[in-house]
Amino acid sequence: MSLVAITQPKLFSTTELDWTFNGENTRELTHCYHDYPARMIPQIARQFLELFAKNQSGVLFDPYCGTGTTLVEGFIRGFDVIGFDLNPLARLIAKAKTTAFSLSEIDFYISKFHKYILSNPKDLAIPKIEGVSRLDFWFKPEVVKKLAIIKKFVGEIADIEVKLFFLTAFSETVREISNTRTHEFNLYRYSKETLASFQPDVFSLMSAKLGRNRKGLSNFLSIIEKFSFIPKADIFEFNTVEDYPSEFGAKVDFVLTSPPYGDSQTTVAYGQYSRLSAAWLDLPQPEKIDGKLMGSKKRKSVENFDCRKLDDSIKKISQIDEKRAIEVSAFYSDLQKSIKNVSRLLKSNGLVCYVVGNRRVKGVELPTDLAVQNFFEKNNFKHLKTFDRTIPNKRMPLRNSPSNIVGATENTMNREYIVILQKK
């Protein structure tokens, strides 16, 4: 593959380049399909590809793909895309977002669904929902009955691709009509006062999700139909901290991703977010996912990373709280291992783009952008540029509790860093 002239100084000296994207629609195309914690907005991936991969082709890889924002942006530009994620729900959604469903088949089944719910099947047995021991705690009785009706309909869809489309809408419906506070990503039940007036319209919400997703699909297909061939999208359950798949060795042209900003215990608990949906969709239960993510394994001491600013920051935290410093160190240790394995998958001259945030722990800012740069440079990469962006409307609280101590809060991140490197 012939890369564009990425090292031209004028490309990096421009001050007009805007990475904020304030007010732009982040739910275009199939990006509209499903909410998910800490999503990277598609405009970042889009601008990177316009700058560094315009009129190019090849393989684009996201080692922590979530629900596939990067994969969609690569796919609509003709790239074969590969994504890894440990969360089965995220993989399902990412697969749906990158599938060129038949619009006529989707329309047929949406019409069939509307007729089905109008018939309002009676005396339907409530299925056993593995992974949710107290359905009545998380769902109102009437909601459970209607979810069971939808589950039966979706379960009887023979076409695997159509079923995938419906499962994606069903998952988000489950989340939004549960007794869970929807503005939270962790599982917190509504108060008794809120639940007293909470009367979700299950069928209408499912219909709305299908209609919205159908519109996004139509716009997605209007791009794909212009291609002479449909790109490949492969999504796998793989943990790059532990190893890398030898069959992908040195075949990737671009890595474009946004890794976790810290351990799941004090940032985003993806397993908790996915639990109810995964149970209704008969997916493997994700409650153990958070125990497999970066920094989750116990360590006995702080590691030295030979990255001065990172080591200094962890040392400052250690002087305040040694246990917390060990936890922070564990995260960066896993991130370093992951980057080493990701590096092996890139071709010579391949490009990497990591979008990261520098979180604060115990009042100390952690320079994740510099850590990412340092870790890749140790694996024979050249740093090209780090852009920074203000986050205009990040779906995170203005303050959080990184110590998990009641009342002990800190400001959350309002900036992200787009770190770009090239393999030598």
Number of strands: 11
Q: Give the CA-based shape.
A: globular
Poorly predicted residue ranges: 1-10, 394-401
Strand content: 5-15%
**Classification by helices and strands:** alpha/beta
Kindly, what is the distance between the CA atoms of the first and last residues, rounded to a whole number of angstroms?
15 Å
**Mean of residue pLDDT values:** 89
Give the ordered list of helices and strands: HHEHEHHHHHHHEEHHHEEEHEEEE
Going across the major beta sheet, what is the strand order?
Answer: 3-2-1-4-5-11-8
Main sheet makeup: 7 strands, mixed
Helix percentage range: 40-55%
Radius of gyration: 22 Å
> If helices are DSSP runs of H or I spanning 4 or more residues, what is the number of helices?
14
Can you walk me through this structure?
The chain is of the alpha/beta class. The chain is built from 14 helices and eleven strands. It has helices at 9-13, 42-52, 69-75, 88-97, 103-119, 135-138, 141-155, 160-177, 192-196, 202-224, 270-280, 308-320, 322-345, 368-377; strands at residues 59-62, 80-84, 233-236, 252-257, 346-356, 360-361, 364-365, 381-390, 399-400, 410-411, 415-423. The strands form three sheets. The protein has a seven-stranded mixed sheet with strand order 3-2-1-4-5-11-8, sandwiched between helices. Strand 6 (360-361) and strand 7 (364-365) form a beta hairpin. The two termini are 15 Å apart.
